[in-house]
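Journal club side-thread
Mid-discussion, someone asked how the predicted structure for our own chain would compare to the paper's figures. Pasting it here so we can look after the session.
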Amino acid sequence: MKLPHVLTAIMAAVIFSPTIAFSQADKAAITEETKVTVLANISRIIRNQAFVPGIDMTKWDEFVTAEKAKIDAAKTDTEFSDALRSAMGKFGISHIQIMTPRMATARTERKAVGIGVQIQPQEDGLLIINVFDGSAASEAKLQPGDLIIEAEGVKLTSTSTILGDEGTKVNLKIKRGSDGKIEPMTLTRRKFSNVRPETLTWVNKETALLKIPTFDLSYNRVKVNELMAEARKAKNVILDLRSNGGGAVINMLHLLGYFVPSDKPFGLFVTKSLAGDFVKATNGSPTDLPKLADWAERGWLRSSKPTDGPLTSRVSVLINGGSGSASEITAAALKDLREASVVGTKSAGAVLVSTMAPVGSGWLLQYPLSDYITKAGIRIEGNGIVPDVEAPLVKFGDPDTAIDKALALFRRAELRDQRSGG
């Protein structure tokens, strides 16, 4: 699968965001000295520390050479980062990218500048999958399912036309998801909070809908604990991980503790050390992940252990193409250990464990440290999670078919239990 560019939430240890939250363009001038330092540090880290089974990281020098003209011509942070991303994209894996100083600051402050939408690239434009509260897009009543087809009179092939400085305007053409009508719109870029809080709502008297928008910095453990206390009253729980790009392992394990037993392993991080030991002990291939899973005795992931133990509710998980990394691991674990149904569209297929490293002058590099496989030795990277039941992205004004289908699966499971006597 061709992985889309990543311009949002980035964090050490399992994170990926296959969606883009439009933010401020980096028009700051970059010096030749900074370019040389940043590139040298990136090259050193990728060659010596990055690891993915079966991927030759020494090819980085070759990829840089292919982009040398763009790198040399780069005069701004944006131009330089675009050239580096193009080189990194040649690896064909997730979790390897560069953050400009401005992007790094925006992530830490949890604020950005732009029109305030999260998107997925499509062949005919940029599909809006989330609108941030308090943003220009929210004020203009843009909705998930709307498609941005033009910016400044040009059909969109990238996000560059959308990006810009605070206070500047951008002229768009929007194809509304509600009726397909094309509508011109002018928005003023401004600061917005990219934090999306966790929520719990009741779909009916037996079913709670728990939305976890991220496992990144803004994941609120205290809030999640409060919501899970309420969720214990539910007979059924729908866990909504749609457009959740991932986050920190520790946050993922915290949430999973409410759903799966802490004594049952559900997945394995395949590190350079583990892969090397496997090859040495078996003379096998580090890419033979099912055999490696059978062989491995260490490194297995287990959930955290909440005070009251896991919920006993029936569980269904909602995913889409914006669900990546920790979200995909969570969905797979619930399917394997709780027989949870998975509803929605295929996930991103991006679960490499990564970390962040400073590479000079405020620039940050995200690079992979290990792969991930399920208990059965199934690799999610590049493959994604295929839902049990398909449910497309909901369009504005339409019912959420994913929730409806999850409810139908709960009713079917209840009927089976009644017929079998429990």
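Post-session note: The CA atoms of residues 27 and 222 lie 38 Å apart.
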